[in-house]
Amino acid sequence: MALAEVHEVQGINYRKYESMFFEPQFLRVEPGDSVVFVVEDFDHQPQSVFIPEGADHWKAEKGKSITVELNREGVYIYDCAYHNVMGMAGVILVGRPVNSEEAQLFFKQYKNKTFAMNKDRLDAIWERWGQSKGTE
Questions:
Q1: Which residues are 36's β-sheet partners?
Q2: pLDDT digits (tens, 9 = 90+) for 18-63
Q3: Which pLDDT tens digit goes with each residue over 68-98?
């Protein structure tokens, strides 16, 4: 049995002409792994906005880091409650993408309704997925 790993996602305020984003914006982990959302110096609030059926939603306290254990396979989409309008969001794939079609449909509506800026910030994730469909 493999040991669970801990992965880190940083909330970034500004770097090289880009502002308010998570790094990495896409993360692939295994069921049972944990993700630490690191919030250091700004009022970010990471929260899940789309999760696989049977998984638990999460929401950090304002300006606080949070550790989330991901036990259900599938695609998770998260954002910053305060900066989602700026396209501050990310995607985590846990194991196999068993809900990828639902996630893609959700994300298309979500970004059009929520993002005022950086609407194409995560498009490369979905494009790459489409190109590799059937190999996951």
A1: 8, 67
A2: 889 999 999 999 999 999 999 976 689 999 999 999 999 999 998 8
A3: 999 999 999 999 999 999 999 999 999 999 9
Tell me the C-alpha distance between 31 and 50, whole Å: 17
Q: What count of residues does the chain have?
A: 136
For the chain, domains (ranges, CATH) are 6-131 (2.60.40.420)
CA distance 129 to 26: 12
